[in-house]
Specification:
The termini are close together. This protein has 736 residues and is an alpha+beta fold. The radius of gyration is 31 Å and the shape is flat. 42% of the residues lie in helices and 12% in strands. The longest helix has 22 residues. Among the domains are: 103 residues; 176 residues, Galactose-binding domain-like (Jelly Rolls, Sandwich), CATH 2.60.120; 167 residues, no CATH class.
Length: 736
């Protein structure tokens, strides 16, 4: 897979090669014989003009155009099949010369011996570094929550030129450092435990309130139950807590039809636990566990979870009846009970008893628990603090922190400003721990922490190489073992890379690289309509789809398997919910498992992943153009140029009178659009059997049959995802 766009490779360092180079000599006659009829002085199809083009790479535009020509030749899309074709020898020669010329440009660009452009940590790297530096639980603590989004370059957010530093970001660094210091510096005694137990009459308030709450749970999916003692302030301290509950499923099969209640009575009832924070709002809400509840038998559940101070937990009927209370009362109950039209005289609770019910009898929370106190991240920098710590202890502690935070040895001269700042605060306020936090804040706002800096010497130092490795594979700082390793020795380097990939922190590489290469980060930007896609939300398919793709990436990486399995793997990773969504039987567990695919599943490789198919749709309908561009850009490395600014996008057909193919054909009639769309459209239309959330279909909603057939520019017939896979497998040099 080559970099997306030559600008990322050459844009910063275009070189001037001799105009009499071999490539220049070979290029001009080739262009005259096979290209200038359509891309010369008199005619410029697709706004491409080659008659003034040379191979000396004197400017950025020539470099991009040469790469585009090379891509078209490699794909066999140019010259068009109806035009005069070069011989295989001519084609081999020009491809070799252009490849060598562009490679020379990349090599010359590395005249700095691989020195990285000075860059700051991106948001993910900052979070992970704080986590590992202080051994903090970061599931719900995010010091970067106010940071502006990181700009990406060619889809990646770890490129120096895109990671600018603004005044606004600097202010956020100051605030983040304050939050981290408050979280990490925890002197004193272990926080006292709480142990709260509420029986049925106390859950949600009074017994009357409890009955009403259960009634609402019977018919409303998102109504929570919680402990009134925690409702306002949440838990009193950071730590691990144990949550227990006793629940019973009653009347799963009732007189009400499933479609009326929007409920699946064939499934066991499931109780979920979620956590949230009043201070942080909706961004803090997440589900932490889900449990099957047995019919007419009390089920005891227990779940351990880290909660930050101020967080609370709630219970939900995860797969309960879906819809509003008003809808149930107005549209459902009257179908089964004649006098339900008089709700004031006959309260709703009268009728709820005959429907499915999830009863919760007891709630309990206990904690916080700690493996050790004081916490490890505090003790590593402030070990065995004396009763009255002094300046000497402050200097030693902050020196330890700076050496780890700066990811290299730190001289006394470098340390002096930070130590002096903390000591002045200590002398003025006579509060050691306030001064310690002040020093921590100063170190965390230092350019030595925020930036990944390297010296100007020819060879990377051991610390610099360790830092490069760790931010590549872990998106975080190097650990002590990596910093101490003799990485200049090949065997040691190889062993350390293996260890790093086996470490759970390497999940950052899987998630970040896959998220950016494949565009998974766009999943959720245009979510499906909740009313028309209830199962998508009830089963949390967005998370399941993302997990499927991450697991495929991880499996190929860990097994050092062929990357062609991204195209044609005959397996995937599914849980029960995602398997139901795909229509694949035999998967009954909520845990993900490897599943062997059959031909009629249509799911082999990335092209069948719901994550890709949903991310390339708009939440309402498919977007064949986006899907086609995604294949060209992410799998073939030949992205089309952006559309001209005055071109209107394809308008959705809200009345359903036209198929997507007809809409795209109309769009392609515009001469300005034709050249690019004849590459894009066949690929996008071949994916039309997958709907906007990745479900396989044979017809559109209006019952018209889907036609996935088409023809690539080189004449290759195409029709459906299997044909795209075959097309890609014949061009493995492009994919690899």
């Amino acid at each position: 897979m080559r970099a997306k766009g030559i600008s990322a490779v050459i844009g910063l360092f275009v070189i001037a090669a001799a105009s009499t180079s071999r490539a220049d000599v070979a290029l001009k006659p080739f262009l005259e014989n096979y290209c200038l009829q359509c891309h010369g002085a008199e005619k410029q199809k697709g706004d491409r003009r080659f008659d003034r083009l040379g191979a000396d790479l004197k400017n950025h535009d020539d470099a991009e155009t040469l790469q585009e020509i090379l891509d078209q030749l490699n794909l066999g899309e140019m010259p068009p099949e109806e035009e005069k074709q070069p011989s295989s020898e001519e084609l081999k020669t020009i491809v070799a010369e252009l490849t060598e010329t562009l490679q020379r440009a990349r090599t010359a660009a590395r005249e700095n011996s691989g020195r990285a452009v000075l860059r700051r940590l991106n948001r993910a790297e900052y979070r992970n570094t704080i986590r590992d530096l202080f051994a903090l639980n970061m599931v719900d603590f995010d010091p970067t929550i106010g940071f502006p989004p990181d700009d990406s370059v060619e889809g990646f957010d770890n490129v120096g030129e895109g990671l600018v530093t603004s005044d606004y970001l600097l202010q956020n660094y100051l605030e983040a450092a304050r939050k981290v210091a408050d979280k990490a510096i925890r002197p004193g005694l272990r926080p006292e435990k709480i142990h709260l137990i509420s029986k049925g009459e106390e859950i949600g308030g009074t017994m009357r309130g409890f009955r009403a709450e259960v009634a609402r749970m019977t018919i409303k999916l998102r109504q929570p139950l919680n402990l009134s003692q925690l409702r306002k302030r949440g838990v009193p301290a950071d730590g691990e807590y144990v949550i227990r509950a006793k629940a019973l499923a009653h009347q799963r099969k009732s007189r009400y039809k499933d479609e009326d209640l929007r409920f699946n009575s064939d499934e066991p009832m499931r109780l979920s636990i979620s956590i949230d924070s009043r201070e942080l709002g909706a961004t803090a809400h997440r589900t932490i566990g889900e449990f099957e509840i047995r019919d007419d038998e009390i089920t005891t559940i227990e779940h351990r979870v880290w909660l930050d101070r101020g967080f609370n937990f709630n219970l939900h009927w995860a797969n309960g009846p879906n819809g509003s209370f008003k809808r149930i009362m107005r549209k459902v109950l009257p179908k089964y009970t004649d006098d339900a039209i008089y709700p004031l005289r006959n309260p709703p609770e009268m009728y709820i008893g005959s429907g499915p019910e999830l009863h919760v009898y007891e709630l309990e929370i206990e904690g916080p628990f700690y493996d050790e106190w004081p916490p490890a991240g505090f003790a590593r920098f402030f070990p065995d603090p004396p009763k009255k710590p002094d300046s000497e202890y402050l200097d030693a502690s902050l020196s330890r922190l700076a050496a780890r935070a700066f990811r290299r040895p730190v001289s006394s001269a470098e340390l002096q400003p930070y130590l002096a700042l903390a000591n002045r605060h200590f002398e003025k306020h006579k509060d050691f721990w306030a001064a310690a936090k002040y020093g921590v804040r100063a170190i965390l706002t230092s350019p030595n922490f925020i930036y990944l800096a390297e010296e100007g010497s020819k060879k990377l130092s051991r610390n610099e190489l360790a830092t490069r490795l760790s931010y590549f594979l872990w998106s975080s700082m190097p650990d002590a073992e990596l910093l101490a390793a003799s990485l200049e020795e090949p065997d040691v380097l190889r062993n350390q890379v293996g260890r790093m990939l086996r470490d759970p922190r390497s999940s950052a590489f899987v998630e970040n690289f896959a998220g950016q290469w494949l565009g998974l980060r766009k999943l959720g930007e245009m979510p499906p309509d909740p009313e028309k896609n209830r199962g998508y939300y009830a089963d949390d398919l967005e998370s399941a789809m993302r997990e499927e793709t991450h697991r495929l990436f991880r499996h190929i990486l860990d097994g050092n398997r062929s990357i062609l399995e991204f195209i044609n793997a005959d397996y995937t990773f599914l849980n029960a919910a995602l398997a139901r969504h795909y229509g694949i039987p035999g998967v009954n567990s909520d845990e993900f498992q490897m599943v062997t695919l059959k031909a009629d599943h249509h799911r082999g490789g990335l092209l069948g992943h719901g994550s890709i198919l949903t991310a390339t749709s708009n939440g309402i309908e498919t977007q064949p153009v986006v899907r086609g561009v995604w294949i060209l850009e992410n799998l073939l490395g030949t992205p089309p140029p952006p559309p001209p600014p005055d071109i209107e996008p394809i308008e959705p057909d809200t009345r359903g009178l036209n198929t997507m193919r007809k809409l795209m054909e109309k769009h392609r009639d515009n001469p300005t659009c034709f050249e690019c769309h004849r590459r894009i459209d066949p690929l996008g239309l071949a994916m039309e059997n997958f709907d906007h959330v990745g479900v396989w279909r044979e017809r559109y909603a209006k019952k018209s049959l889907i036609d996935p057939s088409g023809k690539m520019v080189d004449g290759t017939p195409i029709g459906g995802p299997d044909s795209i896979r075959n097309y890609l497998l014949k061009r493995t040099n492009q994919f690899t």
